[in-house]
Amino acid sequence: MTAERWAELYRLEFPRIYRALLAVLRDRERALDALHDAFVAGLRHPPAHDADLAGWLFVVAVRSTRRFRRLPLLPLEWVTGSSGDDEIEAALDRMEVGRLLAGLTERQRAMVVAQFYLGLDHREIARHFGVKTGTVSATLAQAKARMRAEVRNVS
Known about the structure:
8 helices; Arc Repressor Mutant, subunit A; mainly alpha; 73% helix
């Protein structure tokens, strides 16, 4: 893959992958550092396939953050890039999703975000994270059950 293709990928995918990393890592600096590390890794050792480079970058970035810790929820405008009054209902939905994601383990958050935000299927997630598809299915099922239980507890 050429440096020009990586520059184009950076321009097109950076905001989306950055927001996905914010949802998982819940720390702006860690997300930014991890994403830059992933792009550097791609320039040094490009993936074997050009397919799903956004997913590859996301997983490389998540893996580059070796130490996982629980952090407070991000202010909404960090993830969405806006805080306008015309988006209040959508903002409330995102806040609820952020609250539910905060109750998951970092691995669960990473897989939930990979599936629902980046649109990766179980096979793609398994390939990127180096696990079996059954592990992905189990992790996602556990994450969804945890989120459903949290919704029931609040209701």
